[in-house]
């Protein structure tokens, strides 16, 4: 927490409101003073955006993950198309080979048998 919120001294009071972090500076830590800070004085205090949690993906990380996912999905689609084309052309080659074999067999059957004397 000290690293995430930049805490260097203690005690420290931080008010989180609307994604902004307000730092309470001095004036004692009485209940009345803290209530006054939380209700209206926080507007004059030093402020900064609440730092993101370390494990939360930033928008850049999310864009990177979407890009990687899209590239991966595209690669899978290309691989599937490649496999379909491979099977199609293998089938076509086998069919052509079988047709040529049948044609040769038909030619051999219609050819005149050799004469035996």
UniProtKB/TrEMBL annotation:
InterPro entries: Thioredoxin-like_sf. The chain crosses the membrane at residues 64-86. It comes from the Eukaryota. Keywords: Membrane, Transmembrane, Transmembrane helix. This is Thioredoxin domain-containing protein.
